[in-house]
Amino acid sequence: MAWIKICAKGHRNERGAMVCAQPGCEDDLSGVMPVEEPEPQVEAGSGPPAVPAPTPAQAPGPAPASHVPTKPEAIIRLLTEDGREIMAQNGDKIGRNAIGTEYLQNFPTVGREHIQVFSQNEAWRLKNISQTNPTFLNGQEVPRGEEREIKPGDELKLSTKCRLLIVL
Prior knowledge:
Tumour Suppressor Smad4, 4-stranded antiparallel β-sheet, globular, 13 strands
């Protein structure tokens, strides 16, 4: 299941995009919520789209329990100081070269992959995965490799300059 953002002109973008990536289109996507990518439309009478035969690794059978879809993926929203939203899903990494890159690339002390977020038992957690730069949650440093629960209203600080508000 793929999640995407669609700009006002109908261009598909990655779910973490803040600006449309289509050449010549610079639509602001900061307030656009990701949606499940629509299934391809099939014209009446033309039959289903061609599907390649499964390889042995893709052979039909029950999906592993960890891959059985039960409900749409939860999305966490982080609000920047200038009002933009960074949206991520379970397991996403956030940083200068990850989800949120359009905003975070302006902060050289934020790690390329600074934190990872997880949805676990109806609650959200973050893990500090930065190699060198600190992460703070509500003013308390989160040591590298450690996890903390996050809730709406929590203040997250990546490095010493980038403040984000957890809004879930």
